[in-house]
Amino acid sequence: MSYLKALEPLMHGCVQVLEDVLEERCAAGGGTATVNIYDLLSSLASDIMAECSFGGSFGLVRQGHHPLKTRITNYMKKAALYQTIPLLSLFGKPRDEQLDAIVQGIIDKRLHSQKESERRDLLDMLLEASAENSDKLSMEDIKAEMFVFLLAGSDTSAVTATFCLMKLLENPAAHQALKRELDELLASSSDPIVDENTHNLPYLNAVIHETLRMLPPAAGGFARQALEPVTVGNYVLPAGVSHWRCACKNATNKIRHWLQQTQQLSTVILASIPTLTSSFLRDGSLGMQAKRLPKRIGIRSQQAHECVLANSKVPLSLFDDRC
To answer: What GO MF terms are annotated (predicted)?
Structure first.
């Protein structure tokens, strides 16, 4: 996607910081280092989203802390609790007024300040689109989009990349097959890893898609509130009612369809798929075409899904190529 390509230089600046931090820790440990890989990937994803959305990285990879990130994390925990226990809504909403004001302030500052550089990030693109047609993209819409990228995009990207690495370590044959594919693409460790190069790598894409199928970061969907009365199947939901839309049944039906269409998968037991090599990826070879792999189980927009893939591919390629 063109907007992702425009954001790529910003992403690579954050990835370079991660490389530097890992090299520093290895040097301090005499050539090796024990790290919390999820913590680093989560910090990287948050830094990338901040860099691409609000004009500057949080610096979490190097510093490990940022007040805005802390507020976001606390808000997500509170929102998850409210979704799990709906009765809590009787005591108010989990909205963080200060977090809302911070995001609004960033948007207002961008609107009223003169551009000092040629750098374009996601917020610039949204503001330009709103200026062209404010009826289709209002300021409230822009603020909502920024929250989606900050709240949802960073965590799902980090979880996806972490699960990919976990499954690759559990399956050495798949790990070596991916490493061979990346070695063919990258002549040296200094070659840049860009989405344009990795977009058509069948094994890399298969690993990510298969991991999303087996361990989706948002398998159950999210709560939705009906703004007006709506009929869903045989049920009428009045305005203001919150409801859950679960994609698991639909995903299971799709998997059954793929099993029927693919002889190589005919022996897979849906109730228990323990490892990557028992399903789509076997002995380091593709079990089926990557384009037929499921993209997601959780409910996501295509744009958000592409961001998750882009933010997962780069660190995954980095770790596999450097290891």
So the answer is: heme binding; iron ion binding; monooxygenase activity; oxidoreductase activity, acting on paired donors, with incorporation or reduction of molecular oxygen
